[in-house]
Amino acid sequence: MTGPADRDPSPVTGGPRSPGPTLQTIAEAARERVPGVDEVGLCEVDALGHVATRAATSDLVRRLHAAQQRLGAGPVLDLRSDPHPVAIPWLRREQRWPGYADAAATVGVQAELVVPVPVNDASTTVVLDLCSLGTEQIHPDAETVARLFAGHAAVLLSSDTAGLLDALRAREVVGQATGIVAERYQMSAERAFAFLVRAASHSNMTLREIAEELVQRQQVDRQLADRGLLQPRNGSTVAGTG
Fold first, then answer.
1. Same domain, 29 and 122
2. Are residues 52 and 151 in the same domain?
3. Which residue of 1, 61, 177, 199 could cross-link 56, Cys pair, CB 3.0 to 4.6 Å?
4. What are 154-166's pLDDT values in tens digits?
5. 238 pLDDT band (50/70/90 cuts)?
6. What are residue 219's phi and psi, to 5 degrees?
7. Confidence (pLDDT) at 233
8. Are residues 128 and 197 in the same domain?
9. Residue 126, C-beta contacts closer than 8 angstroms, at least 6 positions apart
10. CATH of the domain at 213
């Protein structure tokens, strides 16, 4: 499994090397942030079942999309009639699309998660396709985190400038909060991001809201520490975590 250090920077984390948001950077960010995922693609499927890969972290994903178009069957195609996330653990045992399952196993895919990207075009289905090469199971946090990236893609595809700017501001603060959690609790960026997602869910807050609260607390702590009123510490407290 590729490590975070080997991957392109995430649009969630920001930083000087981060390019502007594109479908490709969203795919790469999802590969970095969605737990248990090794390769990611974004594709469009038209009413006739033609699959067009719009972004992919490797040729493996393009081959999966081509196989589904050739066979006329597969999880990406099924989202046209049932636009809900589909988790496929133990892909080699999958009976709904035996031909596709064989094709996926041939290139080393052991589990797959497909998540619809909400777009205002009834003639086109857009799909975030996430593949695992190292495990046959789907991580319990994978769908929740993947939905966030599907939302980023939807904003980008909608050409909604205000929404895109809002997403950019959100990704910056979420990236800062992820760094705080990772440092304080000595965990990877992937685990820190999933930690924030769970904390937001349990607190009835959005990911952006809980990230903003965490960053604000960190800033207050630093101001107090600079004035000698508080002992410096790593990170800050996440709402509801103590």
1. yes
2. yes
3. 61
4. 888 876 545 555 6
5. very low
6. -65, -40
7. 53
8. no
9. 42, 43, 44, 45, 54, 116, 117, 119, 153, 154, 157
10. 1.10.10.10
